[in-house]
Amino acid sequence: MHEMSIALAVVDQVQDAARADRQGGARQGLEGMVPDQVTLRIGELAGVVPDALHFCFQLACEGTLLEGARLLTESVEGRAHCTPCDVRWPTGMPPDLCCPRCGSGASGLLAGRELEIAEVHWTEPGDRGETCKPADIFVVEEA
User: d(Cα 37, Cα 125) in Å, to the nearest integer?
Assistant: First the structure.
């Protein structure tokens, strides 16, 4: 189940961002705040099972700065491109990688393999919190 390794990587990256901010290396001003919501953009071709990822995320957060945080996922539609026809199309699931015009294989995937932290919502006890969209989006890379 690679969803657990993804969840652990997300938790590590958010904790690293908080740690860097507390050490003065970032500009977000997160001192004393805790993340209460993490939003991931996940491409439909990334091979991630959202329900499994939600389950793993809750386990990965236990005992960390993110304990109790919610995970939201935004799905990114798979899109392919045929260079000879200059046609772009949604791949769907299971993916249709044949050009709808000429029938040849897709020259490339334009979208659908994303797996990135889109935003983290930080809160202070008794406060509404604030949403941080870091200039450098964290990209989760599988090992």
Answer: 14
Known binder of ligand: residue 132? no
Q: Is 54 annotated as a binding residue?
A: no
Q: What is the set of domains in the chain, with CATH numbers?
A: 1-75+112-143 (3.30.2320.50), 78-111 (no CATH)
Residue 99 known to bind ligand: yes
* pLDDT over 70 percentage in the chain: 81
What is the mean predicted confidence (pLDDT) over 109-122? 95
pLDDT at 136: 40
Is 121 marked as a binding-site residue? no
Q: Are strands 79-82 and 108-111 parallel, antiparallel or unpaired?
A: antiparallel
Please give the Cα distance from 37 to 39 (Å, whole number): 7
Side chain identity, residue 75: S
140, containing H or E segment: none
pTM over 0.85: no
- Record the tokens describing residue 115, joined without a space: 């797996």
82 is in an annotated binding site: yes
Whether 85 shows a pLDDT value over 50: the answer reads yes
Rounded distance, CA 29 to CA 31, Å? Answer: 6
